[in-house]
Prior knowledge:
alpha+beta; 5-stranded mixed β-sheet
Amino acid sequence: MPIPSTSTIENNDSISFNYSSLLLASCKKKWRFVDAIYGVLPIFGVVTRKSAHNKLETVDYFKELALQIISTQVSDEMNIARLLVLAEQQNIKHFTIQLPYSLSEHQIALIYTEYRKPVSLHQENDFLQVRF
């Protein structure tokens, strides 16, 4: 299923995209058995690495992997923590995600708790900027 073109890659190590669009695409996705396994145990979907040939391939590949690991069945904080793991594994150093709303301090604290590694989270309005 094509994902709405709301993602961009700013340079070789930075991705920006709209979380709502990605979550919507995950709702419309036709699930296979292996996708269900990735949704329950996302680590299986995150361990894949790929060296992209160009920037477009990188962002498209990231979105495809993201569709395997995010779920409407878990909290936004858990989904964001999963996206951080994916971005880190894909060697993305800077990650900006447009959210449908601003996160509270409690929600940001939950992301830190879920991710469990040093990371810098900075929120400006509905944009969450992540630096590894």
